[in-house]
């Protein structure tokens, strides 16, 4: 038969070992480049680590640059003496990473593999298939000789053989069955593997070339399986990329729908409640003898609705800088309400932030000012903004009576009142935070939100 010629068998062995090396490199690159939170990335990081271990062991033993010759076929070494041996030795752990039910099984074999490595180092050189049973001693790394009766296989060698067969064929068969269920095209690979295995059992010359026929033929089967696994991994990475693209599209659609809804609500408020409240204030004609309390209440309501309309209008958020928006809030507060409000900017006059962040900041500042007007009995309000390590810091300070300690935290809300709880929730959604400094001389509430500075075209 053609494969009886050693000159043919040895080149084939190196060809498949080279395929295994290529598979190691490709799998390692995929694993290192995969997204850390994706299942594909987790699976491939397992295998990329094993790739480095296997290649490191291979180089350490000098097997890369000094390939065996034809004569070495007559003295085949035990496991780990060729790259293909290292390849199929570590591959069960990749099965364990890919098929989660095998994790405990594969990692339980770690002590067995340690024994195999030690055995490989301490066995005498020149071991052949015919002479393996004549070995009756090994020298341990610390110099002690371990002997057993001649003519009987060492328990270690039996353990090595059994562990190899279980790890290789057990994991291989399980992986193949699982893969067939998911990908019917894998049946072609099963047919090829079965044919090669049957050929190995029928051809005595192949059996004599290695310690175990199953080990030898596995070197020829695994590269094909690796190619199939590589194909599957590439498809998974492509699917992840497609999902990310769809998420971007859906996010754009959501933002556009939100913009349209903001415009609709703004128009609705402007044409309805604002006009009705303005007419009611004119019709009241409150004389000075009756006081101005009703007029103040209506003015405050109109101001709140106008602020809501301004905040809902995406055009204003898009066109104005954050500094201008906060400055406008301070001016309107001082003009429409009986309180002095000023805005102090510390270094954001030339920057622009995203429309989403601006909307959150404006809403939160308006809510804080409303709380001051209604509860603090303050005369002065100060709004400040600054940057600190890519964090936008905005604070609202008043000189009112402060928040009572017994009301600062309640059973239902972390912060006193629904308004502060809503602010805290919105900031946390953007990985931000809210800090309250409270005393009887006033309150200072600081908002921190991470954001990147945008240019004027964003």
Automatic annotation (TrEMBL):
Coiled coil start-end: none
The keyword Transmembrane helix is assigned to this record: yes
SMART domains from the UniProt entry: HATPase_c (SM00387)
Entry annotated with the keyword Transmembrane: yes
PROSITE patterns, per the entry: HIS_KIN
UniProt GO MF annotations: ATP binding; kinase activity
Biological process per Gene Ontology, one example term: phosphorelay signal transduction system
SUPFAM superfamilies (alphabetical): ATPase domain of HSP90 chaperone/DNA topoisomerase II/histidine kinase
Keywords recorded for this protein, A-Z: ATP-binding, Kinase, Membrane, Nucleotide-binding, Transferase, Transmembrane, Transmembrane helix, Two-component regulatory system
InterPro entries: HATPase_C_sf, HATPase_dom, His_kinase_dom, Sensor_HK_TwoCompSys
Residue span, Histidine kinase domain: 365-453
Matches recorded under CDD domains: HATPase_UhpB-NarQ-NarX-like
TM annotation in the entry: 12-34, 46-66, 78-97, 104-123, 155-175, 187-203, 209-228
Protein name: ATP-binding protein
Organism: Alkalimarinus sediminis
